Automatic annotation (TrEMBL), chain A:
Domain Transcription regulator PadR N-terminal positions: 16-89
Species for this entry: Arthrobacter mangrovi
Protein name, per record: PadR family transcriptional regulator
Annotated Pfam families: PadR (PF03551)
InterPro entries named among the record's database cross-references: Metal_resp_DNA-bind_regulator, Tscrpt_reg_PadR_N, WH-like_DNA-bd_sf, WH_DNA-bd_sf
Top-level division of the source organism's lineage: Bacteria
Automatic annotation (TrEMBL), chain B:
Keyword field: Membrane, Transmembrane, Transmembrane helix
InterPro entries: Perm_prefix_1 (IPR047928)
Domain of life assignment: Bacteria
Transmembrane feature ranges: 101-122, 128-146, 153-172, 184-201, 222-245, 257-274, 295-314, 320-341, 353-375, 387-408, 428-448
Matching NCBIfam families: perm_prefix_1
Full protein name: DUF4153 domain-containing protein
Length: 120, 449
């Protein structure tokens, strides 16, 4: 199943913040974690993660530092900040509202109204 | 760790391709490359070979245009290329830049000290004016020679050139207030600048491309120097005003120390800025030529009309002829810059027509001046001033006629643009040779009058 691109874009920020809330990570590990969490369903365009991370850094939600990988390459690690956690909490509330609304509407959609049958 | 030359080459090419995107900084590149390598390593662990792993990793990275657009949205400031003179990142390049800064500052201070010493020894009269270029330009040349790592032989030749010029300017028994001394002083900087050009070309002064680069360098230098001068003037003006209110006299310090150091020092610094920016910022001189070519045409036509209405050049005085020569030199620089900036493969366009009009207008002015000069010479006889002016105008005439002819040929599709470029770069040393003649041959020829 492929997830719609707009949905991926909308969920990217809370997802990245949420993953970083679990612990500090670098870019590639974040992508892997996304794939893991969605059971491979969410395939991001890898390159797009970095402008997003930079935007979050500019907003002060994450901070970054350069370290080295096990093979000796330069690697940038991202850490969520206090205001990042606030933003995450805020997004979580918003998504909870959205998810709740969707759940309700789908539950009622499973019992199709009589009018629709009349049209068929 | 096992090596994969083919894979490394592919990653290198990918990185090189991304490097050209302004919005993606070298640090971002490192980050993206680390990502790519991780992805490749993971794919290889699942059994793909190098080639397949690379292709998958590239595919997952996404469309590079879209990615770099995304970077540009986040970092729009990067689209304004920043001139980084001394990079923050440590490493060899950083150390080199600091060394360069030290050399530039040392040379700038050296030029200041020399001018200061010159003022003390020569006074601020004619003797200083004759030597002014000689006190400053060798320092710019030294910077360029250092930057190009010129051979010892070339350095010796340049040094000999400067020394010879110094001897001619100072050992000739000029009669006080004579015109040959003034002419020599006016023409010496041209010769000096030509020597600087040889250092700029790193000895490859025969190369047309290097000559054209030197033309570009000169134009950008003029602009950077002007910017520095403007900034300096604002600072000096504010200081002057503030000190005047307090009642302190700023003038002795300004004339005795600040200007003798700032004016030559700024030239060395400007040369450094132009060298440093070269590929970073778009050159502005060519853009200015686009703005000023039509305006200059209007100016030349207006001048021609007014002078014709006033009865031609025959009646006018020497001052006007000198001014008109200055205007023609300006036209020539405009021409050179528009030619140096033009893509030589582009098809003829409206601007090339404008350029031809400019050349024709300049030719009309030059022809009128030559007629006036010949009339003056016939009437009053020769003098060093007249011969020097006549020579310069003849050189300009040849330059302009051939330029006009080649431009016409290019517009009619008979000649490549390269021919026009070639003509400019070939002809430039002629001006230097003429200036050398005026400095070296004129004084004895006219008995140092």
């Amino acid at each position: 199943m492929r997830i719609d691109k707009d949905l991926v874009a909308a969920s990217a920020t809370p997802l990245v913040l949420g993953i970083l809330a679990e612990g500090d990570l670098y870019g590639y590990a974040i992508i892997k974690r996304v794939s893991e969490l969605s059971g491979g369903g969410m395939q991001w365009t890898d390159g797009m993660l970095y402008p997003l991370l930079h935007r979050l850094e500019r907003l002060g939600y994450v901070s970054s530092s350069w370290g080295t990988s096990e093979s000796g390459r330069r690697r940038k690690h991202y850490v969520i900040t206090a205001s990042g956690r606030e933003a995450l909490a805020d997004r979580q509330e918003q998504w909870a509202v959205v998810a709740d609304a969707l759940r309700q509407v789908w539950q009622s959609a499973q019992r199709p109204p009589a009018v629709a049958e009349g049209w068929a | 760790m096992e090596t994969h030359p083919e894979l490394e080459a592919q990653i290198g090419r990918w990185r090189g391709y991304l490097q050209r995107r302004q919005a993606i900084s070298p640090a971002d590149l490192d980050e993206l490359e680390d990502h790519l390598r991780e992805q490749i390593a993971d794919r290889r662990a699942t059994g793909l070979d190098d080639e397949e792993a690379f292709l998958v990793a590239i595919k997952r990275m996404g469309n590079l245009d879209a990615v770099s657009r995304e970077f540009a949205r986040e970092h729009s400031d990067r689209l304004w290329k920043q001139l980084v003179l001394v990079p923050e990142a440590a490493g060899d390049a950083g150390a080199g830049r600091w060394r360069e800064l030290a050399v530039v500052l040392a040379l700038a201070i050296g030029a200041g000290l020399t001018v200061r010493a010159g003022l003390s020894w020569l006074g601020s009269g004619n003797a200083f004016a004759s030597n002014a270029g000689l006190l400053v330009i060798p320092f710019v040349t030294a910077y360029l020679a250092w930057k190009r790592r010129v051979s010892a032989r070339l350095a010796a030749v340049l040094l000999a050139g400067f020394a010879a010029l110094a001897v001619f300017l100072n050992a000739y028994p000029f009669s006080p207030g004579g015109s040959t001394e003034l002419l020599a002083a006016l023409h010496a900087p041209v010769v000096l600048w030509l020597l600087a050009g040889i250092a700029y070309a790193g000895g490859r002064w025969r190369s047309d491309n290097r000559r054209m680069d030197f033309v570009r360098f000169t134009g950008e230098l003029a602009i950077y120097y002007t910017l520095l001068a403007l900034g300096g003037a604002v600072l000096i003006g504010l200081t002057f005003a503030a000190l005047q209110i307090v009642g302190a006299d700023f003038e002795p310090a300004l004339e005795g120390w600040i200007l003798p150091f700032a004016v030559p020092g700024a030239l060395v610094v400007a040369a450094w800025l132009v060298e440093a920016k070269q590929n970073v910022v778009e050159n502005i001189a060519p853009i200015l030529t686009r703005v000023f070519t039509p305006l200059t045409i209007a100016m030349l036509l207006a001048l021609l009309a007014v002078l014709t209405a006033a009865g031609g050049f025959a009646e006018v005085d020497r001052g006007l002829l000198i001014l008109m020569d200055a205007i023609l030199m300006l036209v020539l620089s405009l021409l050179l810059y528009s030619i140096s900036a033009r893509d030589s493969l582009a098809a003829p366009g409206l601007f090339d027509v404008l350029q031809l009009v400019l050349v024709l207008a300049a030719l009309a002015v030059d022809a009128a001046m030559l007629t006036a000069m010949l009339a003056r010479i016939a009437e009053f006889g020769t003098s060093p001033n007249k011969i020097a002016a006549l020579g310069l105008n003849l050189l300009l005439l040849v330059h302009l006629v051939r330029t006009g002819w080649l431009t016409l040929g290019f517009l009619r599709g008979r000649r490549p643009f390269g021919a026009l470029e070639h003509w400019q770069t070939r002809y430039l040393p002629v001006y230097g040779a003429w200036a050398a003649v005026v400095v070296v041959v004129f004084p004895p020829l006219f008995a140092f009058s």
